[in-house]
Amino acid sequence: MDKQKLKNLPQAPGCYIMKDDQDQVIYVGKAKNLANRVKSYFTGAHNEKTTRLISEIVDFTTIITHSEQESLILELNLIKQYLPKYNIRLVDDKTYPYIELTEEEHPRLQVVRKKTPKGRIFGPYPNVYSARETARLLNRLYPLRKCDPIPKVACLYYHIGQCLGPCINKEKIDYEPHIEAIIRFLKGDTKEVSNTLKKEMKAASEALSFEKAAEYRDMIQHIENTTEKQFIDLNDLKDRDAIGIATNNEDVAIQILKMRQGKIVDHEQTVFAFVQDPIETVLTYLSQYYEHHQPDELLFDHSFTEVDLNFFFGSKAIIPQKGSKKKLVDLAVKNAKHDLTHHHMLYRHQQERRNEALQELKDVFKREINKIEVFDNAQLFGTSPISAMIVFKNDGFAKKDYRKYHLKSTTNDDYQAIREVTYRRYQKLLLEKKELPDLILVDGGVGHTNAAKEVINSLNLKIPVAGLKKNNKHQLESLYYDDKDIALLKQTNTYRFLLKLSEEVHRFAIDFHRKTRTKAANQSPFDDIVGLGEKRKRTLLQHFKSLDEIKEAEIEVFVKIGIPRKIAEKIKEVLDAKSHL
Q1: Which of 12, 138, 212, 385 to pair with 75, CA 20 to 30 A apart?
Q2: Is domain 3-82 annotated with CATH 3.40.1000.10?
């Protein structure tokens, strides 16, 4: 994990998303302070599960929220979206509750777990207990229907004044004043109710009725917990993206908060350099990003103009002026600003270290080092021998230029493997007149390096060749070049840089070798027989129980089940040859 990235974490509430080496989300967490929480994973001792999680973390991203309350909701949404393997308790079908005001002739107020189209929804509320207590308080204050179904006689609620009695009142009941008051309350206008409760609490306290006063105090607290404004989850079930940007003189950061069915379930973050106008660059990027699919709404901040947005996105583009959508965009902008600062500090630090390492390599090899190609071999007891090559250019690993090689001239001779792969690589570059590297590195010692040098010299190339030499614990310890071992000190940038190259080529080679072994293990002796496709193979498997039975069968048996005579003869020939190996 990059220490500089950990240093740049925000001191703010939000969620963090842990990823493995396959860029898969393996854990989602929430925090009141992202910096403190994320750093805690990489310091001190942990239990077994956390230790396993940490061992798999390769990278992480963060999403800043307005409050810890919002981070609770966002965490649940992200877990449901990604189903990370280290999040266990929240991957079921549960969700935070909502308060529903039904749209029936005689409305009810109730706490529900899932959004339904039956009424008006408020929430979600991370504090389940406070949500239930708030609904209970509102049901005491406003005489909506409590019974379901409606009984034929008046119930207790009618007699204590908490229901208008639709069971016995046959005239039309006007609920509108009560509904308006409830909606104002659940939208955050709680002043009237809170003031009433505070007066009751004060009166109970003065009367030395402390239990009653404590009950009123708890009611006030539940109201505050429940009606705290949350923007992570909107209740209109729409798909929308909130887009925020931040720029400096060189770079622009884009943060896209993706809301699906009214919930933020994902985010996209990117930082890149622009040439002239950052807004024009962003619009070009977004027009490509949304080329094939656009959500119901695209929310932008005031950095953009309606004319530009309408040209690219039509009526879907909105610049909200106030309310929850505006605050959602503000949150995207806040995240973009953090991304820009974080990227600038991290990139600058990495670039400085990389430049220092490249300068030291320039001093060693007496030439500019802009492009490096690194080779590694992999084989297991002579099976599935392969070689792999990675490419590093000025701005990082050029993964599109990576190459994989199935070896043809050897099974378990590492030196011959290096000879073959370097010859195949650089003969092809010469024939195609493509760019050659400034430095060739071989993951190995004296023998590997000399084998590669032999080929490079035979092709009349003037490219320095060096070896990444390991100790008996398979740890990088020196750079072998020009018949000398150049010791590498672990605290230097050159060591870190070369170690990164060594780890990347080893990862690439091992991954390729694992896939090659798996493919070889699944191969059939019949795979190379022309005319014997999947359909005819299935015919053989359905008729014969084993390879021995196929080998002992007469040709006429094959013909009888639909296998052509020539193919049947080839099958027998292949199995006879296999038995003599």
Answers
A1: 138
A2: no
